[in-house]
Amino acid sequence: MTTLLDLGSMEVSWLGGGEFELDGGTMFGAVPKILWRKKYPPDEENYIKLLNAPLLVTVEGHNILIDTGLGNKLTVKQKQIFRVYRDWSLVEDLAAKGLAREDIDIVILTHCDFDHAGGVVMRKGNGQLELTFPRARHIIQKREWEDVCVPNIRSAHTYWPDNFSGLADSGQLELVDGDAQIVPGITVSLTGGHTRGHQLVAMEGEKECAVHLGDLFPTHTHANPLWIMAYDNFPLDVVRIKESLLPEYIRNQCWFTFYHDIYMKACRLDGEGRVATSLV
Predict the structure, then answer these.
(1) How far apart are CA 219 and CA 240, in angstroms?
(2) Which domain holds residue 92?
(3) Sign of dihedral through CA atoms 39, 49, 138, 97?
(4) Rounded CA gap, 208 and 266, in Å?
């Protein structure tokens, strides 16, 4: 059964963007293993399983994707390196919902790391590349796109050119600078932290609210502001942002939605930052 979060006039569901394994230490940075392993157990080699689950948001006739998964362009070697144990099935999952690629109106990228932007461009049966969602506006923060175009020594290893092939010339790239309303009820805000142009997505339904913090809050175990990833480019900014944002959304009883968490798709937190309600 498909997991569905009904916000009232707005529904959120999760799709198959590929599943992989990463070293647990990188996902929890300076947090001692004796602490994090109790909440997110690793295997004997210290790897943990993670989803890459794009969110499909339907609101007022719009079909909106938040991030796009690993895509179908990984080589055999890349799949081995990242221990991909379930392939990208985004297009097939949409078809199961009665949606074609052309039915997606908007793609919002929280940031452009390969595990979030890998499905922007797909490889066809003849080997050629094409936009996976040819009619969709692709919403990216201006700073993030600048770093895609001129990556530094660190981001060059995760902003892969093939994931953006043809996007700039397609007329479907839409850069925003800071806060922007995408459609009524859906807004993006520049956060930075994980990457320089990382953004969150806030969802305000008629009954309830939700926020997608992307890789600032990759799993439910990262609710503590000090639990951050070694992958974060600006770690102290991540701590500051979480200290600022989490209390506001907790007070408003908003759902926090997840992209990587194998244990739950969304949760609410209590005043102590503990999971109060979860959606699995």
Answers:
(1) 18
(2) 4-279
(3) negative
(4) 13
Band (3; pLDDT cuts 50, 70, 90): confident
Q: What are 9's two structure tokens? A: 């006039």
Dump pLDDT digits (tens) for 182-192.
999 999 999 99
pTM for the model stands at 0.97
- pLDDT per position as a tens digit, 88-99: 999 999 999 999
Give 23-49 pLDDT, tens digit per residue: 999 999 999 999 999 999 999 999 999
Q: What is the pLDDT of residue 1?
A: 44
Summary mean pLDDT of the chain: 97
Please report where in the chains the tokens 């397609």 appear, as a residue.
Answer: 170
Phi, psi of 34 (to 5 degrees): -60, -25
pLDDT over 80 (residue 209): yes
What is the domain-level CATH number for residue 28?
3.60.15.10
Q: What total of structural domains would you count in the chain?
A: 1
Q: Cα separation of 79 and 88, whole Å?
A: 11
CB 227 within 8 A of CB 36: yes
**Alpha-carbon distances, residue 135 vs 6, 17, 64, 212 (angstroms):** 26, 20, 12, 23
What's the maximum distance between 2 C-alpha atoms anywhere in the chain? Answer: 53
